[in-house]
C-alpha cells in the first residue's frame, strides 16, 4: 500500500514524479489504496506534470488522446502534446508526428513533412523511424526515391535494434527498481522517528557513502529555520522557527553523499552537529505555532539558517530586487556561486553545484544551502538527543540510501 497522503502532499508541492504517479494510479485504478479508475483525475494530474515540463506526461497525454483506448480520439489535442515532447527531442514523439502527417491524423496530410519528422527521429536513434525512412526512400514516398539511402537506413535500423534490445533489458530492471524505491522512500520520509543506528550509518564513511563538512555556520540567536532557501525562505510568512533552540555559536554542517548506479550523485542527508555527544534518540524538530517538523521544497534545495540570518537575507533580497526589478535571484546571482562551489569541490556535488555556505554581503551572516536528495517534496527534520536528553544535532534525511 502506498503512503497516499504523502503522495498527495508531494503532488501539491509540484513534485513531477508524484503528479505522474497519481495520474497512473487514477488511469487504471489502484486497489491497494482503494483508488477507482477516474480518467478526469488522471488527465488533471498528467496535465500538471506536463505543465512542469515532464516529457513522460506529455507522451502519456499524446497517447491517451490519439489511441482511442480510454476515450474518443482527439487527434488535435494528442498531436499538440506530441509536439511539446518533440520540441524536447523525444524521438518517439517525432515518429508519431511523422505518421500523423503521412496519414493526416489531426493535421493536414503532408507526406514531405511526415518524412522530415521521421528523419529527425531516425537521426535521433529511433530504430522504427529508421525503418520508416528506409521504406520511404525505397518507395519514393514523401522524398525522392534513393535505393542507396534506403539500404543505409535499413542497416542502421538493424544495428540500432540490437543495441536498444540490450540497453532496454538493463534499463527495465533499473527503472522498475527506481520507481519501487521512490515509492518506498515516500513511506520512509513519513516516519515520525528515526533509528539512531540508522542515522549513525548514514553519517559515516562507507562503501556507498562519503562525508563532507561543508563548513561551520554561525547561529547568532540559536533560533533555527529549515527551509527551501531559493523559494519559501524568501518570504517571512512561509517559514517558521523551531520550537526548541540551541546555544548561539558556530557549528559544523555535515553532508552525506551517495553515488549510486540507480540514482546518481545525491546528497542523502544533512546534519548540524551541535555538540560532541552521540545521539541515542531522535524526535521531530517541530516548528513554533504549527504541529509540523520539516519543510516543503520547490526548488530542490534545503538549508540550515539562524533566525537573524533569515532576517538579514530578507533585507538582502529586498535590496537586490530593487536593483534588479525583472531579475531572477538564482539565474542572476546564486547560479554562479553554486558553479564556483562545484569548481572548488567537484567530488561531492553535481555539475552546477549542490552545496553553498552563503555569506550575506550585508553583514556576513551565513546560510548553509544544499540540494535535497530526490528534489522537490516535503522533508522532515529531527533533533538528535544524547543520553542526557540534551540536543546534540539536527538532521534531515532526504533518502534512505539502503533503497538506492
What features would you describe in this structure?
There is one protein chain. With 404 residues, the chain is an alpha+beta fold. It has two domains: 4-188, Tetratricopeptide repeat domain (Serine Threonine Protein Phosphatase 5, Tetratricopeptide repeat); 193-403, no CATH class. It has twelve helices and 14 strands. A hairpin with a 3-residue loop joins β3 (249-260) and β4 (264-273). α2 (16-28) runs antiparallel to α3 (39-51), α4 (55-67) runs antiparallel to α5 (75-87) and α5 (75-87) packs antiparallel against α6 (91-103). The longest helix is centred in the middle third of the chain and has 43 residues, at 147-189. The two termini are 20 Å apart.
Which features characterize this protein?
alpha+beta; Serine Threonine Protein Phosphatase 5, Tetratricopeptide repeat; 4-stranded antiparallel beta sheet; elongated
List the SSEs and their pairings:
Elements (H helix, E strand, L loop, with lengths): L3 H9 L3 H13 L10 H13 L3 H13 L7 H13 L3 H13 L7 H13 L3 H13 L7 H43 L6 H7 L6 E11 L4 E3 L22 E12 L3 E10 L7 E4 L1 E2 L2 E4 L1 E3 L3 E6 H17 L5 H16 L10 E5 L6 E6 L5 E3 L1 E5 L5 E7 L7
Antiparallel strand pairs: 1-3, 2-9, 3-4, 4-14, 5-13, 6-7, 8-12, 9-11, 10-11, 13-14
Helix pairs in contact: 1-2, 2-3, 3-4, 4-5, 5-6, 6-7, 7-8, 8-9
Separation of termini? 20 Å
Gross geometry? elongated
Strand order of the largest sheet: 1-3-4-14-13-5
Assess the beta-strand content as a share of residues: 15-25%
Helix content: 40-55%
Number of domains: 2
